[in-house]
Design a protein that fits this description.
The complex is a heterodimer of chains A (about 270) and B (about 325). By secondary structure, chain A is mainly alpha-helical. Chain A has helices at about 1-30, 35-40, 55-90, 100-110, 120-130, 135-160, 165-170, 175-205, 210-215, 220-225, 235-255, 260-265. Chain A is about 75% helix and about 0% strand. Chain B has about 325 residues and is mostly helical. Classes of the chains: A mainly alpha (about 270), B mainly alpha (about 325). Chain A: Its main location: membrane.
Chain lengths: ~270, ~325
């Protein structure tokens, strides 16, 4: 009896914590559906009538180009990263090169370098090559940002492919391409999907590079959001609508990759 | 193998017929390495070469607004970084910001992970609610905290104070700028710590706990002597990965305080020194210092990852 009462207290506490952490997200969503005057009241008006004005104003205010830029940089870099990372992970797990752990840790160590220290030379190179405010250049940088993570993740997924199956397939005379297509791909597919989603999230969220290297043409969604930093007057519903729209792809990708999220964020160190 | 064969058959084949063994071995080696090379070369070019350039520029006198006055500066930039009070305080701010966000979110994350490890109704739903803050785009989250929660006139925090009948309506950001930034980051990073620690808790073997319970150990003793030692490496991992990410934080400082009110950290300072003041030499010197600091954290981080890694291979 005492046990269940104790258990109930933990449950209540967990629910309370969950609601506290979720409250700002819920409030952001609710405010995005209010009119500007209802959004800026004190005490807050919970039951104000709902409207989509905030969203209409956000999309009419030139939100499409930055959103499309973000999509092309995030999706483009994710595809390139996978094309580079999958063969590399293959050479680090299924058919490993000598000293493969050293190579693996080299990949990881590059991720631990603060990007801000490389910002200036990269800016100068972009300037020299005439690539400032160019989405392809940003895409390339996002590739380098995500490649170590993708290699680590893909390696941990590919090393789950049982050796015995690979050996059996090659004894049965299956060629490399067949083995990759028929044996490795089906087992590694969920891992590839999770890796792609995590790379997408990191590229989508990036601000510092985008802020420094892009301007009016290639500005991404986070850069567009920085336009609200010094806003004055009635704009709360609009800023909330903007935050909801820009976060939506990440929320979807994050919950889709939920099971593998920890593994991705800890670079495959935690399963 | 080829030598052995020829001996067994007693046949003397001309040397030219036999493929030279060294190149074939080399070829096999390179064919194993080949899939690795594109990724490796790409990464070295894009991430390592810029650091070399930063190192070189850090010893140069270079302000892009004054292009004729460019040259070798020796250690002047480093001296400037360490004597400039703004840059020095940004070093302190970086340490304060990183340490407080990591420690607070680690403690909260541990508490939440322990709660989520228990069985209760709606656990999956609570877990989803707790992860959500981590999945809000960082700039968007910072904007929400700045304008929608902290705003002194119509922010949610003062609204709640008003509801509860308090007359105080503080200006959160100006009265405690650093805590305001820390709080918003703790909100975003606690779920991260929670997820890592929860994974640690769920990988904990159950038998020792059962044995200890039968032997009459109290829940606190079980936590102290069984759960905590098992969690230690996950706590280390969460702390180190969190440090690596938060040392580099730019979004929250840029958005919530725009580096003002004594909250500028090193990434923001470097951004400002190079992007607004155009002091390329000094910005690079500060960058080299950040790298040096990160190497210290990264060494520990790599060691932790490597120990988890070896355990997994066993």
């Amino acid at each position: 009896m005492k046990q269940t009462a104790g258990g109930r207290i933990w449950g209540v506490l967990a629910w309370f914590a969950g609601i506290v952490f979720f409250a700002p997200v819920a409030w952001m969503f609710l405010t995005s559906l209010h009119s500007e005057t209802d959004a800026a009241t004190n005490p807050p008006s919970l039951a104000a009538p709902l409207t989509l004005d905030g969203y209409t104003e956000f999309f009419d205010g030139g939100a499409w180009p930055p959103l499309l830029n973000s999509f092309s940089a995030s999706i483009g870099s994710t595809i390139i990263v996978l094309l580079l990372a999958i063969p590399a992970a293959y050479a680090l797990s299924i058919k490993p090169v000598e000293k493969w752990t050293d190579v693996l840790f080299f990949f990881l160590s590059t991720k631990m370098m603060p990007v801000v220290a490389a910002l200036l030379p990269i800016y100068l190179i972009a300037q020299f090559a005439g690539m400032l405010d160019n989405i392809s250049f940003l895409t390339l940088l996002y590739c380098s940002m995500n490649l170590p993570i993708a290699v680590w993740l893909m390696r941990s997924f590919l090393s789950e492919v049982p050796r015995e199956i690979l050996e059996a397939a090659s004894i049965d005379g299956a060629g490399l391409i067949t083995i990759l297509r028929r044996v490795v791909a089906p087992i590694a597919m969920p891992g590839i999907a999770a890796t792609a989603l995590i790379c997408f999230i990191f590229s989508w969220n990036e601000l510092l590079f985008a802020r420094v290297l892009t301007g009016v043409v290639a500005g991404t969604a986070p850069v567009y959001l920085t336009g609200f930093v010094t806003s004055q007057g009635l704009f709360l519903a609009k800023v909330c609508a903007a935050a909801v729209v820009v976060s939506l792809p990440v929320l979807i990708a994050g919950f889709a990759a939920q099971d593998k999220l920890v593994q991705g964020l800890s670079l495959g160190a935690v399963k | 193998m080829a030598v052995l064969d020829s001996r067994l058959t007693g046949e003397e084949r001309p040397v030219v017929d036999r493929p030279p063994p060294a190149p074939r071995k080399k070829y096999a080696k390179w064919s194993t390495r080949a899939p690795l090379l594109p990724a490796l070369i790409f990464l070295i070019i894009v991430t390592q070469l810029p650091f070399v350039a930063t190192l070189v520029i850090s010893f140069m006198k270079w302000n892009s607004l004054d292009p004729t006055n460019r040259g070798f500066a020796g250690f002047d930039n480093y001296v400037n970084v360490f004597t400039d009070p703004d840059l020095r305080s940004s070093v302190v701010n970086t340490i304060v910001l990183t340490a407080s966000v990591v420690l607070i979110s680690l403690v909260l994350g541990l508490g939440l992970a322990l709660l989520l490890d228990k069985k209760f109704r709606g656990r999956g739903f609570v877990r989803t609610m707790l992860i959500a803050p981590f999945l809000v785009v960082p700039v968007a989250a910072a904007l929400i905290w700045k304008h929608v929660l902290y705003n002194p006139e119509y922010g949610l925090f003062n609204g709640i104070l008003n509801w509860l009948g308090f007359s105080a309506q503080p200006d959160w950001i100006s009265s405690m700028p650093m805590s305001a930034v820390v709080l918003s980051l703790v909100w975003q990073w606690t779920p991260f710590m929670m997820l890592i620690l929860l994974a640690g808790l769920q990988s904990k073997p159950i038998e020792p706990v059962e044995a200890a319970t039968i032997d009459g150990a109290s829940p606190f003793q079980i936590f102290r002597y069984l759960t905590f030692p098992h969690l230690r490496q996950y706590l280390e991992l969460g702390g180190l990965l969190g440090s690596i990410y938060i040392v580099q934080n730019f979004d929250a400082v840029f958005t919530i305080t725009s580096g003002g009110l004594g909250t500028a950290n090193l990434p923001y300072m470097i951004y400002q020194t190079f992007y607004q003041a155009h002091e390329y030499g000094e910005a690079s010197a500060a960058g080299v210092i950040v790298v040096a600091g990160s190497i210290i954290i990264a060494t520990f981080a790599l060691r932790t990852v490597s120990s988890l890694f070896k355990e997994e291979k066993r």
